[in-house]
Amino acid sequence: MSDELLIIEDNEQNFYMMRFLLEKNGFSVVGANNGRQGIEMALSLRPQAILLDIQLPEMDGYAVAAELKKHEEIAGTPIIAVTSYAMVGDRERILAAGATGYIEKPIDPETFVAQIAEHLEKSRGVEEQ
Ligand code: MN
């Protein structure tokens, strides 16, 4: 597994903001702007975690999460949904589809990296049990 984080996000501004914050804090970041490309990159790069937008063209984040889970070699990769869908039902729906965590948009530049780091820490803890 690489140290890279894969961001699947179709909004350029959101992508650049997340990448900027993460790279500033020592993460390396790769990006895909649609679900198909994101799945291909996840399979070939085996990122440390996947940040997944829900509102994507053609294949939405629910479908992407479900598809990622079908591939055994990356089924254990943490998927952090990053979405403006703030309603409880949507949150449950993306977790049911395979996401392991959830961050709300608009992202808070003050806390975003800490949220990601905390999530990675938690996923690591789960693996070790
Ligand atoms: Mn989007």
Sheet/helix structural class: alpha/beta
The CATH architecture assignment turns out to be 3-Layer(aba) Sandwich
Which compounds are bound in this model?
manganese (II) ion
Strand arrangement, largest sheet?
2-1-3-4-5
Instruction: Output the helix-strand order.
Output: EHEHEHEHEH
Strand-residue proportion: 15-25%
Radius of gyration: 13 Å
Q: State the helical fraction.
A: 40-55%
Can you describe this structure in just a few lines?
The chain is an alpha/beta fold and about 130 residues long. It has 5 helices and 5 strands, in the order βαβαβαβαβα.
Explain the overall architecture.
The mean pLDDT is 92. The protein contains five helices and five strands; from the N terminus they run βαβαβαβαβα. The protein starts with a strand and ends with a helix. Helices cover 47% and strands 19% of the residues. The chain has a five-stranded parallel β-sheet, with helices on both faces. The chain is of the alpha/beta class and 129 residues long. It has helices at 12-24, 35-45, 61-70, 88-97, 112-128; strands at 4-8, 28-32, 49-53, 79-83, 101-104. α4 links the parallel β4 and β5 (101-104). It has one domain: Response regulator (Rossmann fold, 3-Layer(aba) Sandwich). α2 packs parallel to α3. The site of manganese (II) ion has 5 residues, from loops.
Task: Give a quick set of tags describing it.
binds manganese (II) ion; 5 helices; 47% helix; Rossmann fold; alpha/beta; 129 residues
Secondary structure layout plus pairing:
Blueprint: E1 4-8, H1 12-24, E2 28-32, H2 35-45, E3 49-53, H3 61-70, E4 79-83, H4 88-97, E5 101-104, H5 112-128
Parallel strand pairs: 1-2, 1-3, 3-4, 4-5
The protein binds manganese (II) ion.
